[in-house]
């Protein structure tokens, strides 16, 4: 497996600030993909956040100088004064989903350690995105192929097939691994 990338300082600081305010986050997206073995470029930072904390999380982002650019299943923010800070997305999930994701989270590499999606939660999230987003299909499919290939003992074929049925479509298994 390739070395895990270290988080930028601002991503760690934001994570800590949310924790200090009592709003727990779990890092997801491209940074989690990199952590689980597929090093690729990412242009944003994605955090999982509980939906019931939407208002307080958005207010905190605004106090920290971020402007909300979009809202929906996720809220996208851009820092108003520092263009070097990438877009930051807060992805809203229900309490039970967040609980599972947080309980199975792993720590990112030191020195700037945060809670990062565990492999199974990341695969489930990518499968869900594969099902729901035709415009993201290529990226999510490639992410799935790479992280499954780089973690062969973590998720077996039977488990992956079940996950595909649950979070995506039965055809997703063949899309990821090829026809059996």
Shape: globular
Uncertain spans: none
Strand order of the largest sheet: 1-2-5-4-3
Number of strand elements:
7
- CATH topology group of the largest domain: Beta Polymerase, domain 2
Domain count: the total is 2
Number of helices: 8
Helical content (DSSP H or I, runs of 4+): 40-55%
Rg estimate, integer Å: 16 Å
Assigned CATH architecture of the largest domain: 2-Layer Sandwich
Write the layout of secondary structure elements.
Layout: H1 9-20, E1 26-28, H2 29-35, E2 44-50, H3 54-63, E3 66-70, E4 74-79, E5 87-93, H4 95-103, E6 106-107, E7 115-116, H5 119-132, H6 137-150, H7 157-167, H8 171-177
Parallel strand pairs: 2-5
Antiparallel strand pairs: 1-2, 3-4, 4-5, 6-7
Written overview of the protein:
- This protein has 180 residues and is an alpha+beta fold.
- Helix 5 runs antiparallel to helix 6.
- Helix content is 47%, strand content 18%.
- It has helices at 9-20, 29-35, 54-63, 95-103, 119-132, 137-150, 157-167, 171-177; strands at residues 26-28, 44-50, 66-70, 74-79, 87-93, 106-107, 115-116.
- A hairpin with a 7-residue loop joins strand 6 (106-107) and strand 7 (115-116).
- The protein is globular, with a radius of gyration of 16 Å.
- 35% of the residues are buried.
- It has a five-stranded mixed β-sheet with strand order 1-2-5-4-3.
- It has two domains: 1-117, Beta Polymerase, domain 2 (2-Layer Sandwich), CATH 3.30.460; 119-180.
- It is built from eight helices and seven strands, in the order H-E-H-E-H-E-E-E-H-E-E-H-H-H-H.
- This is Nucleotidyltransferase family protein.
- Pfam families: Aminoglyc_resit.
- It comes from Haloferula sargassicola.
């Amino acid at each position: 497996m390739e070395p895990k990338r270290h988080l930028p300082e601002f991503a760690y600081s934001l994570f800590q600030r949310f924790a200090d305010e009592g709003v727990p986050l779990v890092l997801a997206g491209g940074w989690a993909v990199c952590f689980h073995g597929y090093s690729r470029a990412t242009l944003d930072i994605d955090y999982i956040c509980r939906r019931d904390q939407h208002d307080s999380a958005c207010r905190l982002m605004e106090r920290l100088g971020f402007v909300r650019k979009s809202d929906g299943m996720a809220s996208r923010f851009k820092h108003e004064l520092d263009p070097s800070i990438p877009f930051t997305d807060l992805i809203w999930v229900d309490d039970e989903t967040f609980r599972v994701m947080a309980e199975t989270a792993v720590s990112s590499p030191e020195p700037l350690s945060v809670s990062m999606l565990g492999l199974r939660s990341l695969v489930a999230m990518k499968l869900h995105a594969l099902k729901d987003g035709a415009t993201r299909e290529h990226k999510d499919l490639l992410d799935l192929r790479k992280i499954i290939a780089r973690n062969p003992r973590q998720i077996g074929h039977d488990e992956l097939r079940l996950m595909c049925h649950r979070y995506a479509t039965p055809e997703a298994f063949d899309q990821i691994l090829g026809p059996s």
